[in-house]
Design brief:
By secondary structure, this protein is mainly alpha-helical. It contains 8 helices and 5 strands.
Length: 201
């Protein structure tokens, strides 16, 4: 039987368990900061996340089906959240020129204002990270990318647009290389959300 990482005896004996608990504490900080933003805008966490996503991503990704995969939720749940955003006039539907049943979501002017401000909700988490050395940041980033990639492979989280899952990414002899950029990548240059990402088959 596996021991729980939240068991204090297990934590004292396992660095992996301490890392798990540390990540849980950080996720709690994200929840608190996101909820504060939600209260200010009278929106739910997922509604805030949706408008932030739309603000920074291309139109083909701003569809109900893609958002459902992105946030690991059902289409019905995303649709309910989008209905609220439509009623608050933060988003609009843009019909698809080819498929009349399909549409993309776009922010209104007010939606852009809310999304721009809301997208800064994690700034107080970024500030202490800025104090780390360049080496510490690179080690952190590399470790987190590998963790996210493994969670993606095991089906716990779905869409990932990172270097490790991209068909343009190569790693040979300890060197990261992007075939699209035709360039080597340093550890600190690895991307977690790339607009040119092409999922590896």
């Amino acid at each position: 039987m596996k021991n729980s990482s939240f068991n204090l005896i297990e934590q004292n004996q396992s660095i992996e368990s301490r890392i798990v608990v540390a990540l849980e504490r950080i996720s709690e900080a994200f929840r608190v900061l996101l909820w504060n933003e939600c209260k200010e805008n009278a929106l739910s966490p997922i509604q805030i996340q949706i408008i932030i996503f739309i603000y920074f991503h291309s139109p083909e990704k701003c569809r109900i089906s893609y958002l459902a995969d992105e946030f690991n939720m059902t289409k019905a749940t995303i649709s309910d959240s989008v209905r609220v955003l439509l009623s608050k006039k933060l988003v609009i539907k843009l019909p698809d020129a080819v498929d009349s049943r399909s549409y993309t979501l776009n922010l209104t002017n007010e939606g852009e204002k809310v999304a721009k401000k809301a997208s800064l909700f994690a700034s107080s988490i970024k500030q202490p990270i800025e104090k780390l050395t360049d080496e510490q940041k690179s080690v952190w980033l590399n470790g987190l990318l590998k963790l996210i990639c493994d969670l993606n492979k095991s089906g716990i989280i779905t869409i990932q647009r990172m270097c490790f899952t991209c068909s343009n990414y190569q790693f040979e002899h300890g060197i990261h290389f992007c075939k699209l950029l035709k360039n080597k990548l340093a550890d600190h240059e690895l991307r977690i959300d790339c607009s040119e990402h092409e999922m590896r088959q």
